[in-house]
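User: Could you go from structure to sequence for me? I need the amino acid at each position, not a summary. C-alpha cells:
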C-alpha cells in the first residue's frame, strides 16, 4: 500500500515536471541543459520518496541538501531567464509574503513548548518572519501600481511609434472609386520550425509533429499577410488581420491577459513587426481609416490571423462557427469583437470543386469556401474583381509550392484532419485549374511569388498583364498536374546562429 501511495505522489510530480520542461523547451532552452535539469528533478523526486535508492546511507535530509537546493536554484534561474515578466513582481512578492507568514505561524506554534530560553528564541524568530511577511505583502501591494505604470509607458511608446510611422513619407491618397482593389499587407514575420512549415511529408504529422516541434529547432522566419479590400459596393473589408504591434513587441503583456498559461505556451520572440508593418499604420498610409473597415473575413482563429482584430472597432467578423465552438486559444485578440461575430451557414450551394459555399453578399462578389483541416472551421475566401478573382488561402496552403500537395506539405494535425487538409488542397487545385482568371493569395508565402503578387497588386488590382504574369509565375513553379518543376523543391539552409533560410532546388 505504501508503495502505491508513493507512486501516487510520484506520478503528478513527474507530470508537472514534464509540462515545465516542455514550456522551457518551447522557450528555446538548450536541450542538453534541459536533460541535466530533468535528471536533477527526477533524482530529487526519487530521492525524497525512496532515499535508499540513491545510496544506503542516504536520508531525506541529505537528498534535500544535495539535490533539493540545486534543483530549487536552477528552477529559479530558469524562471528568471525565460519566463519572468514585469507583471510577475506583485505575484512573486505575494508568494514570498505568504511563505514568510506561514513560516511565522509554524515557528510560533512550536514555540509554546521547551525551555524558557528556547521559547524566547522561537518567539523572536516568529516575530521576525511575521514582520518580513507583512513587509513583503505591503511591497506586493505597492508594486502593482508601479508595474501598471511601466506597462502603460511601454504601450504609450508603442502608440507614439505607430503615430510617427503613419506620418512618415510615402503615404498616398485612395484611388478613384469604381473597381475592386486588393492590397496585400505584410504584417510582420513569424518564426516557425522549418518542419512545421514544409515537413508534412517527412513525418511532421499529429503527435510526432508536435514532439518534433519541441526537439527540432531548425527555424525560419516567414511573412504574415493580411489583405485589405476596397469594394465599390460593399465598402472596406479585410481577409485576416495579421499580427499587431502589441502582440509582437509587448508579447508578455499581450498574452498575459490570457493568464499565465497563454504566456507560457507562446514564444516570446514568435513575431517580429516594426511600427510601419502594423495594420493601423498600413491602412492609414493607403489613405483609409481602420474605422471604415466594415467586414473581416477570418480564414481561421489562429492568432497570427486574428491579432489585428483589436484594431478594428467597427468591423463585423465573419468566421466559421466550428472554429469558434472549438475554442479560441487566445481570447484576448477576440475580446473586443465578441459581439460582432457572424457565422456563415454555407448554404449557397456548390461552387466548382466545393460542395458547399457561402455567397456572402448574395451577388457573387465574395464567396466563402470551407477548407477544414488546418483548423476545424478553416475557410478560403474568393473575391471577384473586374476580369479576375482572388482566392485568399489563409493557412489551407502556406505558399505556392504547397499547391503540389503530394510533394510539399505543411505539418498536419493527423488522422481525419490530415485527410480533410489534403482534400481541401485538391479542391483548391481543381478550382484554380478550371477558373484560370483566379490567382491564389497566401498568408505566409515566403517564395518569389510574394514579390510577383506585391508588384501585380501595387495599385490594388492586377491589370491583364499583371494577372498573366502571376499565372505564368505559377506555371514556372508547378506542372499542370500539380507537381513541382525542377529547382522548386524547398530545403532548409542553416545559418550560423539563430534563424535559418529556405532555398529551392
Ligand atoms: Zn497562419
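Assistant: Here is the amino acid at each position, in order:
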Amino acid at each position: 500500500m505504501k508503495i502505491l501511495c508513493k507512486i501516487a505522489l510520484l506520478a503528478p510530480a513527474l507530470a508537472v515536471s514534464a509540462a515545465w520542461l516542455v514550456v522551457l523547451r518551447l522557450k528555446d532552452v538548450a536541450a542538453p541543459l534541459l536533460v541535466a535539469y530533468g535528471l536533477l528533478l527526477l533524482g530529487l523526486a526519487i530521492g525524497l520518496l525512496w532515499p535508499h535508492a540513491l545510496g544506503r546511507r542516504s536520508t531525506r535530509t541529505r537528498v534535500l541538501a544535495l539535490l533539493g537546493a540545486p534543483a530549487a536554484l536552477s528552477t529559479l534561474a530558469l524562471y528568471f531567464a525565460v519566463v519572468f515578466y514585469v507583471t510577475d513582481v506583485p505575484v512573486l512578492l505575494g508568494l514570498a509574503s505568504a511563505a514568510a507568514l506561514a513560516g511565522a505561524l509554524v515557528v510560533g506554534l512550536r514555540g509554546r513548548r521547551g525551555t524558557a530560553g528556547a521559547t524566547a528564541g522561537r518567539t523572536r524568530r516568529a516575530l521576525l518572519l511575521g514582520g518580513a511577511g507583512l513587509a513583503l505583502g505591503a511591497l506586493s501591494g505597492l508594486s502593482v501600481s508601479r508595474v501598471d505604470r511601466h506597462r502603460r509607458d511601454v504601450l504609450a511608446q508603442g502608440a507614439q511609434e505607430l503615430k510617427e510611422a503613419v506620418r512618415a513619407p510615402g503615404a498616398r491618397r485612395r484611388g478613384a472609386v469604381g473597381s475592386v482593389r486588393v492590397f496585400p499587407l505584410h504584417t510582420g514575420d513569424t518564426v516557425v520550425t522549418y518542419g512545421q512549415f514544409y515537413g508534412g511529408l517527412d513525418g511532421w504529422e499529429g503527435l510526432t509533429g508536435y514532439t518534433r516541434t519541441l526537439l527540432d529547432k531548425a527555424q525560419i522566419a516567414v511573412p504574415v499577410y493580411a489583405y485589405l479590400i476596397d469594394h465599390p459596393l460593399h465598402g472596406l473589408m479585410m481577409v485576416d488581420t495579421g499580427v499587431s504591434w502589441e502582440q509582437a513587441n509587448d508579447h508578455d503583456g499581450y498574452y498575459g491577459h490570457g493568464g499565465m498559461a497563454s504566456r507560457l505556451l507562446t514564444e516570446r520572440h514568435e513575431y517580429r513587426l516594426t511600427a510601419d508593418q502594423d495594420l493601423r499604420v498600413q491602412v492609414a498610409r493607403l489613405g483609409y481609416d481602420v474605422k471604415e473597415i466594415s467586414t473581416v473575413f477570418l480564414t481561421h482563429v489562429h492568432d497570427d490571423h486574428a491579432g489585428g482584430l483589436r484594431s478594428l472597432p467597427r468591423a463585423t467578423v465573419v468566421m466559421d462557427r466550428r472554429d469558434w465552438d472549438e475554442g479560441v486559444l487566445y481570447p484576448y485578440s477576440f475580446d473586443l469583437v465578441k459581439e460582432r461575430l457572424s457565422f456563415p451557414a454555407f448554404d449557397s450551394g456548390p461552387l466548382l470543386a466545393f460542395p458547399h459555399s457561402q455567397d456572402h453578399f448574395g451577388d457573387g462578389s465574395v464567396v466563402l469556401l470551407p477548407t477544414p483541416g488546418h483548423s476545424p472551421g478553416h475557410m478560403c475566401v474568393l473575391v471577384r474583381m473586374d476580369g479576375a478573382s482572388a482566392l485568399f488561402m489563409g493557412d489551407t496552403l502556406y505558399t505556392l509550392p504547397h499547391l503540389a500537395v503530394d510533394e510539399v506539405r505543411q505539418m498536419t494535425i493527423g488522422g481525419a484532419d490530415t485527410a480533410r487538409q489534403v482534400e481541401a488542397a485538391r479542391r483548391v487545385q481543381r478550382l484554380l485549374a478550371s477558373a484560370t482568371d483566379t490567382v491564389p493569395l497566401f498568408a505566409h508565402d515566403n517564395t518569389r511569388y510574394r514579390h510577383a503578387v506585391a508588384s501585380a497588386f501595387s495599385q490594388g488590382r492586377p491589370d491583364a498583364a499583371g494577372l498573366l504574369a502571376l499565372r505564368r509565375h505559377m506555371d514556372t513553379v508547378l506542372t499542370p498536374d500539380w507537381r513541382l518543376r525542377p529547382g522548386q523543391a524547398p530545403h532548409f539552409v542553416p545559418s550560423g546562429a539563430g534563424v535559418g533560410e529556405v532555398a529551392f532546388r
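One structural detail worth keeping in mind: The CA atoms of residues 182 and 505 lie 32 Å apart.
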